[in-house]
Amino acid sequence: MRKRWIVKESNTDIIKKISSELGVSELTAKILFHRGIKDAQTAKNFLEPEAAPFNDPFIMKGMRTAVDRIKQALNDDEKIFIYGDYDVDGMSASAILVRTLTRLGARVDSYIPDRSEGYGLNVPALQKIAAQGCNLLISVDCGITNENEIAAVKDLLDVIVTDHHLPALDEVQSAVAVVNPNQHGCPYPEKNLCGAGVAFKLSQALAWELRGDDVQNYTKDIEIAAMATVADIVPLVGENRKIVRMGLREMGRTKCIGLRALIGAAGLVGKKISAGQVAFQIAPRLNSVGRLRTAREGLKLLLSEDADEAKTLARQLNRLNQQRKDIETAILSSAVEQVKRMREERGGNLNSLVVSGTDWLEGVIGLTASKIVERYNLPTIILTTRDGITSRGSCRSIPALHMKNALDSMNDLFEQYGGHSQAAGLTMATKDIPELAARFDEYVSRNLRDEDFLPILNVDEIIHPAQINFDVAKEFDRFEPYGLGNPHPVLACKNVRGSSAKTMGRDNVHLSFDIDENIRAVAWNCGNLAPLVESEPIDLAYEPEVNEWQGELRIQCNVSSLEPTAAEGELFPGREELLDVYNFLRRINVSSNRFNLCALVRAFNSETGKNFSTYAFDGAINVFEELGLITIDRDKKTFSMPRPKTKLDLRNSRTFRLGSEQKIFSPPATTAKIIPLTATAKLRFAK
């Protein structure tokens, strides 16, 4: 499905002022404006976060009380336990505090629950910890919703809660101290810290109180905090941006033996590490152990003081990460098969997806839900059950639909649920899944229009790559690190001509081509579009950078979206044209199942004598996919043409509806005919 471009609004006067006062290009100033930055000083802090000061940790509500209680425990040689969560943030926060307290001479141990114990503090675990002689427990990345559990063990041990999540309606009152920038009445200015970020600020406070270390110079374990900040997908603005920028620079020379082994396992030793590499190469390895086994093994790695042990543990995480990928692939495959059946049953007209399975791994279904949304661009709920009685689900949405609001409208179906606009989780009776699917689909269809299902590409500026010079391209480096709250800048241009297109990488899956004699473009996973680039104009979304190759500097455009251009006045394929394409695909599929869009377009035009553009042919493919008339395996680059089992209606395809409405001189909707597709031996479009 083609993306809908939305060019962000700007304020020329503010942009010119930032550009002039900061000495940057107006393009850079415009991108800063799109990030909510409207003055030169804020822009300077954003582009140079290292120069901005750390916030005073003692501003955080509860910090002074927490530090005093920990100081007392150190003086009295009390045993301290750190209780963490089972994701990367929880493991990282636990490691930071254990390492900090160990340096301060504490007797410290740690505990992370298994996923089967549920999120947060639980009474049996707290009782077990107290029985081991623990006097003080410090929670990290959890605890803010556990007043009942803390109250239950109040006579057994003192609890300090450090967390970053929003508090429950029942505030924690039984803890010795609560350290959370999001608790009511906390004046701390940075509300977006992750759990490890809060642990890092507690470490700064302890180092100042007990060692006299200047907060502005204390950066011990900041690389661990940076890893967690990226992995927990909190906004990379303000103090978070400072933590990540400084932490990424420390990763290559980290003194944390376990993190060093993890970086080695990811193949990043000696390389400049980006936030993207943390998010997609380092953090998933650590996360996999929490999903498939126990997060305590991940914490053991981060606390290891033995290089050989750390390498062994990191290799185990590598294997677990591959196992996680295999499990995810299997679940995704099963989910896709269910989507195919749903299309058959509904004649292709889908507004939402609710799929379920037995013994699908709870720690993986959220990842699968994200991939399903990426593939179909439909609000999705994936559920799994072990006993056939209770199911747990992960929900992912598209920008136009607020997932939490949707679940609120049917909350009588859930035992538990929670989340936000784009993601949520739930627990429910398995027998009620069909009702959930019906009510969720009805809610989506009632609240969204066809246009809302189009993928959105938010564009910072429409500009041809040839207009980007070296100075401007270099300025883009200053926007890193990228993540939530600071996405990659998106420049875009329609009707671009490329040349010298060639495939690259293993199995030739990637594409590179020239746009200008000094500009090279790289498009990942677009190797099959090389003929398109050579023969037709294209619509590009990209981000420029300065690239050095064999001593030569060139501007490189990293392409995030590449689509065939729709020629001016070009019509969306009509009924007869769709029939021609469908019959061609059925004929060619008898002898070959290879799916290569550009090759198919050339073969179709050669066989029929037509002059179909890639844009028009791709539109036809999208219609057939939505109707279940073609199944494409884009990983294997194959396709099949299943025969329809029921009567189909072209207007059950959202792409056809939108395309028809966008036709030049298209007839009014009231006169448009409904065109059925019948399941006959040879498909015919009814007149």
Describe what this molecule looks like in 3D.
α12 crosses α14 and α13 (295-303) runs antiparallel to α14. The model is unreliable at 663-687 (pLDDT under 50). A 7-stranded mixed β-sheet has the order 13-14-18-19-17-16-15. Strands 3-2-4-5-6 form a 5-stranded parallel β-sheet, with helices on both faces. It has a 5-stranded mixed β-sheet with strand order 7-8-9-11-10, sandwiched between helices. β16 and β17 form a beta hairpin. The protein has 5 domains: 4-47 and 458-564, OB fold (Dihydrolipoamide Acetyltransferase, E2P) (Beta Barrel), CATH 2.40.50; 57-251, Alpha-Beta Complex (inorganic pyrophosphatase (n-terminal core)); 254-349, inorganic pyrophosphatase (n-terminal core), CATH 3.90.1640.30; 350-453, Roll (Diaminopimelate Epimerase, Chain A, domain 1); 575-677, Nucleotidyltransferase, domain 5. By secondary structure, the protein is α/β, with parallel strands linked by helices. The protein is globular.
Which helices and strands occur, and which strands form pairs?
Elements: E1 4-7, H1 12-22, H2 26-34, H3 40-47, H4 63-75, E2 79-83, H5 88-103, E3 107-111, H6 123-131, E4 134-140, H7 147-152, E5 158-162, E6 177-179, H8 195-211, H9 222-231, H10 238-251, H11 257-265, H12 275-292, H13 295-303, H14 307-346, E7 353-358, H15 362-376, E8 380-385, E9 390-396, H16 403-408, E10 414-419, E11 423-429, H17 433-447, E12 456-459, E13 461-462, H18 470-475, E14 491-496, E15 499-504, E16 510-516, E17 519-523, H19 530-535, E18 538-549, E19 552-564, H20 575-591, H21 597-608, H22 614-626, E20 631-633, E21 638-640, E22 648-649, H23 654-661, E23 676-677
Parallel strand pairs: 1-12, 2-3, 2-4, 4-5, 5-6, 7-8, 13-14, 17-19
Antiparallel strand pairs: 8-9, 9-11, 10-11, 14-18, 15-16, 16-17, 18-19, 20-21, 22-23
